[in-house]
Design goal:
Length: 103
């Protein structure tokens, strides 16, 4: 990690620091938002991207076995589309029907 910091991240932050110091003078609203964008928002977006990628990798596990509970997946009346069993945003890999997962 220290090699990544020394080679890539530190020069990037030094460049940003120099460019912000060159502006100098009284800080205006636009300068404050420019600094916030580069120093806060960009790393926050990068961390969110890393989190989403890691969550995607963890989410590809085997699904849990189907247990038929009486209080779940009740169908008092059929859905008005398709065969009436599947909801509008049905995902056959994640959503179970009343009798179990689709094969």
């Amino acid at each position: 990690m220290s090699l990544v910091w020394e080679r890539y991240l530190r020069p990037c932050f030094n460049q940003i620091r120099r460019s912000l110091n060159l502006i100098g003078g009284k800080t205006t609203g636009s300068l404050v938002w420019k600094r916030v964008t580069f120093l806060v928002a960009t790393p926050a977006v990068a961390l969110c991207m890393i989190n989403a990628y890691n969550t995607k990798q963890d989410g590809e596990k085997a699904r849990e076995p189907f247990v038929k509970y009486e209080h779940l997946r009740r169908r008092n009346k059929r859905f008005p589309w398709g065969n009436g069993e599947r909801s509008l945003f049905h995902n056959s890999n994640k959503n179970a029907l009343t009798d179990g997962y689709e094969v």
